[in-house]
Amino acid sequence: IQKVVIDCDPGIDDSLALMLALSMEEIQVEAITIVCGNSPADMGFSNTKKILKHMGRLDIPIYVGAERPLKRDYVNALDTHGADGLGESFLPEVPGYENSMTAQEFLKKRFVPGQEGGPCSVIALGPMTNLARLLSDCPEAILSMDRIVSMGGSFKSHGNCSPVAEYNYWADPDAAALVYETAALYGKKIEMTGLDVTRQIVLTPDLLAYLKRLDPELGSFVSAITKFYFDFHWEWEHLIGCVINDPLAVVHFADPGLCRGFEAYTAVETEGISRGQTVVDSMGFYRKAPNALILTETDPERFFRLFFSRLLKCREE
Ligand code: BDR
Ligand code: CA
């Protein structure tokens, strides 16, 4: 079992990723930290509680982190995720959850070298502001992170919020740049689950209908939170289905054979029209050691088999 902290901004597909992570026996979710991104941090907190309640896992600690990016104005993605950040499902609020620490305090406690708790990884499903704040105070904390999987960036694919940038890295490019630079300094590799692979993971109406047939309650829940996302994808790009980015990062973490790619030195542009773009030195121009594993290939059928079977199995238990 691999221990992990999930840093996220729920968000429709973050919520699916959390449901999946909590259903996988390979993963032990130690804590969930919230960052502003798709939703403002307080909304991300409230949505995380809703998901944990649905999964019967309110025992997992949630720590709320950054309410704005490192250096710029915060731009949410509620146009994509709905007014409540959860596809306008308007699930009831879950009251009475005490936060003992902020995300910053928790991450420091968990990852500053010399702390107890054994190896633990990070899966980052939103802008990397929380991680960057930790690493700017204590860069060597990166050495205590067993693996770092990040949903973000794109290599050959176009962006999803500018011609070249993916939202998580666009929203806080300074944070993404700092995390990649710190990885380079300390010889770590960020496992970049970017749009090249995540855009292949399309939840279609057929798949959703089948999930409903297999388990009407689970199917209806997924349907309630993804309806808005389906409509967004249709209106924006006439896609019949919705791209669920974040769950792939979770599956890649548990099953590294699902995606393939290559290692390369990677930096993130912070300024101008290419703000948030991942500059992947696949040809080795910079002659720098790789600080990233860039995933470019995946198997959507295998992903959905695993996604469905784990969620269903967890409900049987
Ligand atoms: C990222 O932004 C959101 O739409 C998803 O939650 C994902 O983390 C993709 O650009
Ligand atoms: Ca996300």
Largest sheet: 8 strands, mixed
Measured distance between first and last alpha carbons: 18 Å
Beta-strand portion reads 15-25%
How many DSSP helices? 12
Rounded mean pLDDT is 96
Global morphology: globular
Query: Which stretches are low in confidence, meaning pLDDT under 50 for 5 or more residues running?
Result: none
Spatial strand order of the main sheet = 3-2-1-4-5-6-12-9
Series of H and E elements: EHEHEHHEHEHHEHEHHEHEEEEH
- Rg measurement, Å: 18 Å
Derived structural class? alpha/beta
Please explain how this structure is put together.
GO terms for molecular function: hydrolase activity. It comes from Enterocloster hominis. This protein has 317 residues and is an alpha/beta fold. The chain contains twelve helices and twelve strands. The protein has helices at 12-23, 41-54, 78-81, 103-111, 129-137, 167-171, 173-186, 195-198, 205-214, 216-237, 246-254, 300-316; strands spanning 2-8, 27-34, 62-64, 120-124, 145-151, 190-193, 202-203, 242-243, 260-264, 266-268, 278-280, 292-297. An eight-stranded mixed β-sheet has the order 3-2-1-4-5-6-12-9, with helices on both faces. A two-stranded antiparallel sheet has the order 7-8. A two-stranded antiparallel sheet has the order 10-11. Helix 5 links the parallel strand 4 (120-124) and strand 5 (145-151). Helix 1 packs parallel to helix 11 (246-254). The radius of gyration is 18 Å and the shape is globular. The two termini are 18 Å apart. The model has no long low-confidence stretch (mean pLDDT 96). Bound molecules: beta-D-ribofuranose and calcium ion (CA).
